[in-house]
Amino acid sequence: MSRNVKKRKNDDSSAVGNSDRRAPLLDDIFSSHVDSSDDENAVAASTLETSEALSWRMDPVESLSDWTIEIVYNPSDASGENGGVSGGGSSSSKMDIYHVHKCHLISGSCKSNYFSRLFSEGGRFAESQNGTSRIELHELAAKAFPSFLDYMYCSDHHLPLDTENATAYSFLSKYFDMPQLRIKVKAFWKKDVRQKKACEIYYEHAFLLNESKIHRAAAEHCRNYLMSIDTKSRLVHVPRLDFWLKLVEDGCPEHSLPHWDWYALGTLVAAFCRLNYSQLDQETFHKLTSEAALPSLSGHAALLLLEAERLLVAPNETTLTSLQQRCIDVITSHWNDGLLDEDDTSAILQNQNGLVLSKLFIGSLRTAAKKEASLRRRMRFMIDR
């Protein structure tokens, strides 16, 4: 019997030993620390260390980031080409990664309804499986995304709006379903778009991001400044046919306004057609360049239209089109003024067919002969006096 008691005692001591080796509790750790809450210096120092506001720019581990956003886009080249969405991630696409916090994306007056639906509906969406949203954007929107996140995180919701980024913010506010931000951005661009340089920028950016309301407003204001816009303008590089068709419709004699400058309009239309010939069909090209639409042409515009028609229509070498004949008449009548510089003129003419070149040569000789005869008559008149 004493042996059993002794064995039971040994078992009890073993159990006590095991309990002493259990994992520590959080309360045990805190109870062993010295209470420094009465130490004002220690409290002040601790406050300084933790006073930094939560931000997506912080280390994701330290800030306990619980969601990742991958923004994929195609960077534009030096000429500004491309810059669109990646189309599934091409070899040239770029990806920016943002480690964010759900609470900042779905709370407050600046919350995103897009993310609210994503987070509230749980496993319905594939993103919930790995806690990552992969979003393909145009480069304009992708570049504005960091400050867009700052706006969602910042307590005063400051947004650095300007002409170059307003259209991107408008797009992002629509994409992520943020009505308050969209209203704020709209109030800005509606005033800003009235400026001459601004309306050209809005016109281009709204086309690239498919912001139709901004594009319509920008197009309307661009018409007001059209006569002071040159052929290097953003307007000329954006292939929006409706804008140019509306221009020539408003410019036709039966709809003409007193301030229309036919030479300026013709030069812009010609530059647009030459740059965007691949976007035009023959019917649209003829609408834009008919004599009804452009009753007067400068030598500059005539050269550009000759090149545009060669690229688009590929006229034959036996007959001249009506546009070719008009351009030849203009060029031969103004062969010594209003043309492009020598290199550009040579580049255009060397690609023309033999019929066009022969007509230009003969017409220029006739013009020169007429001017010589006029000069002789003037000199004879001066001598007779």
Order of helices and strands: HHHEEHHHEHHHHHHHHHHHHH
**What is the gyration radius calculated from CA atoms?**
36 Å
The proportion of residues in beta strands is under 5%
Largest sheet: 3 strands, mixed
Structural class: mainly alpha
Taken from the alpha-carbon principal axes, the silhouette is elongated
Please tally the β strands and state the result.
3
State the low-pLDDT regions, or none: 1-11, 13-17
State the end-to-end CA separation: 159 Å
Instruction: Note the total helix count.
Output: 19
Strands ordered across the widest β-sheet:
2-1-3
Provide mean pLDDT, rounded. 80
Write the layout of secondary structure elements.
Blueprint: H1 2-20, H2 26-32, H3 40-50, E1 67-73, E2 94-100, H4 102-105, H5 113-120, H6 127-130, E3 132-136, H7 139-153, H8 166-175, H9 179-192, H10 196-209, H11 212-224, H12 234-237, H13 241-251, H14 262-275, H15 282-289, H16 299-312, H17 322-333, H18 342-349, H19 354-384
Parallel strand pairs: 1-3
Antiparallel strand pairs: 1-2
Helix pairs in contact: 7-8, 8-9, 8-10, 10-11, 14-16, 16-17, 17-19
What does this structure look like?
- By secondary structure, this protein is mainly α.
- A three-stranded mixed beta sheet has the order 2-1-3.
Brief write-up:
The protein has 385 residues and is mostly helical. Helices cover 57% and strands 5% of the residues.
Which descriptors would you attach to this protein?
mainly alpha, elongated, 3 strands, three-stranded mixed sheet, 385 residues
